[in-house]
Amino acid sequence: MFIGVPKETKDQEYRVGLTPEAVGVLTQRGHEVCVERNAGTRIGFQDDAYRSAGAAIVATPAEVYTAEFIVKVKELQAAEWPYLRPGQIIFAYLHIAPDPELAAVMLLKNVIGIAYETVTNATGGLPLLKPMSMIAGRLAIQVGAWGLQIANGGNGTLLCGGPGITPGKVLVLGAGNAGSQAVAVAVGLGANVTVLSHPSSRLSALAQTYGERIHTGALTQAAIAEVAADADLIVGAILKPGNLAPKLLTREILRHMRPGSVLVDICIDQGGLSVTSRPSSHSQPFYLDEGVVHYCVGNMPSAVALSSSQALVAATLPYVQAIADHGLARACYDDPGLQSGVQLYCGRVTHPGIARDLNLSYSPLDFAVTPGSF
């Protein structure tokens, strides 16, 4: 199969879809790989390393998008849309639900969109989302502490506290991969931590792990309003795979928060969990609304792009290899969890959550019934 790896174009997005080592695995199996010039240079993956692994280095995205199988990191940017071709496979974090225009273009272009964020494993987990969620969760406390600095509009709280200094108060919404990692870092700093989540084994595990060092509670509007009013930092980490994030933070809740408190909305890729959330960027990470400093960067893990690329490619490579070796139909037949990632298929919406959120017709796709017929 002919695989293309474009250079990411989102603001300060330095991750790359395949590392040189991963390219070597694919070329040794007989696949052709082209990589856009300087795709990984910023994080130390030089073009010569890709060449040594067997890839062709091409100068333009137009050349990359001649490939039948595109492996990238972030959702397609507008500049990439003209290069899409019918039947082409796009394997990436698609984040279609909050972007009807992107969905319309991909449907019009009749591409196959496979979203990292909805591929599942045998236990229902999200193996391609997990590594980035864990990194984003850890970064959330770091950037939240940065946002609390006076220069960024924050209230001047030192989260870790100190002799004679009261630690900052952190509210984490969600106890999944991102939320659990945020809790770990916040507790490690010595902050006063509260976790609100729907009852789950993960919430129970956090309570057992940290004991009296954290407070836990049910994710209700009343509880959110009560804890948020006294919080210095809120981390939003609620996940509904493939769907829009629930709007849990109203303007009324934010108006009762302390001026200069901070919201880090990890959910922004799926629309954000506050009515005030809108995408920001690494170039301009913070904005103020209702007196609260918002950090809503949709590609947080790119702040540590080398580590993030290594973790992401380790997770995605087995799926890339399966699709390249056997074709998409057979790969989905062998692994139904991969089929869960197929959100769009040649003009059809094949993920129920996407169809519901965008008010589009849902067309089930079942590779398992007729392998090889697609």
Say what oligomer this is: single chain
Q: What's the arrangement of strands in the largest beta sheet?
A: 3-2-1-4-5-6-14-15
How far apart are the first and last residues' alpha carbons, in Å? 16 Å
User: What pattern of helices and strands is seen along the backbone?
Assistant: EHEHEHEEHEHEHEHEHEHEEEHHHEEH
Q: Provide the low-confidence segments as ranges.
A: none
Main beta sheet: strand number and arrangement?
8 strands, mixed
Helical percent range?
25-40%
Which structural class do the helices and strands define? alpha/beta
Number of helices: 13
Overall 3D shape = globular
Q: How many distinct beta strands?
A: 15
Please specify the SSE layout and strand pairing:
Elements: E1 2-5, H1 20-28, E2 32-36, H2 47-52, E3 56-58, H3 61-64, E4 69-71, E5 89-92, H4 100-108, E6 112-115, H5 130-147, E7 169-173, H6 177-189, E8 192-197, H7 201-210, E9 214-218, H8 221-228, E10 233-236, H9 251-255, E11 262-265, E12 286-289, E13 292-295, H10 305-326, H11 328-334, H12 336-339, E14 342-345, E15 348-349, H13 352-358
Parallel strand pairs: 1-2, 1-4, 2-3, 4-5, 5-6, 7-8, 7-10, 8-9, 10-11, 11-13
Antiparallel strand pairs: 6-14, 12-13, 14-15
